[in-house]
Amino acid sequence: MKISATIITLNEEKNIGECLDSLDFVDEIVVVDSGSSDRTEEICRSNPKVRFFSRPWDGFGRQKNLAAELVNHDWIFNIDADERVTEQLACSIGKADFSRFDAFRVARKNHFGGRWIRYCGWYPDYNIRLYNRRSCSFSVRQVHEAVACRTTAPVLHGDLLHFTYDDISDYLKRMERYSSLAAEELIAAGKRPTHIAVLLRPCFTFFKMFLIKRGFLEGYTGFVISALYSFYTFSKYAKALELKKDIFQTD
User: Fold this and answer.
1) Torsional sign, CA 156, 157, 158, 162
2) How many CA atoms lie within 13 A of 36 on its CB side?
3) Where are the domains of the chain?
4) CA Rg, the chain, in Å?
5) Are 130 and 96 in contact (CB under 8 A)?
6) Which tens digit of pLDDT belongs to each residue from 26-63?
7) Does the reported pTM lie above 0.85?
8) How far apart are CA 2 and CA 76, in angstroms?
9) Which of 100, 102, 226, 239 is the most exposed place for a label (fewest CB within 10 A)?
């Protein structure tokens, strides 16, 4: 079965080379870039399997669906620039039963500061990444997009390595963008955020990650991650309130 890989990029010169190197099992790689000003395009074009396209940014879901429209094969493996396919996962993809299923899930090993985080709800973090574009597609969302598939998606053996955040500063820098997009998604979905949500949801996020998901087993790093995600939750709901012009009003 021939497989196309899809990647969306923006200034990923630090990551894209190793990502492309891990995709030697695919037949082609389609990269859709939204205006990189670094060496991302140069690095991509140096790989003979890559077909490089430049398109204005249109949200994570739409951008990934656009990439799916540009491939030559129906089966797609979607990957982010900061991810790497392990040899075991590549072997499992080669042995997948494409005749029985429309999609497959993979487990992600998420890293923070170069360290694999097993707890906090970060592993196995199953995601559909291998799918048939004729029956599946990404949800049209600004952020937290996922492949929508109506049928069962079994799990492939092997992990997808995800080097998600370099450090606290990297998380906070990206959180500013992601929390704004998530707030816009809340409003677009017709949800009315409340002051109680701003107060309680961050607390629940911390409780869930640090205690229920056993983030405490990661030590100080688990505490930091739980606190950062709690702050993200606060930012998302506070920004949503601000968008609704209710931030200084009481419920």
Assistant:
1) positive
2) 22
3) 3-165, 168-243
4) 19
5) yes
6) 999 999 999 999 999 999 999 999 999 999 998 899 99
7) yes
8) 9
9) 100
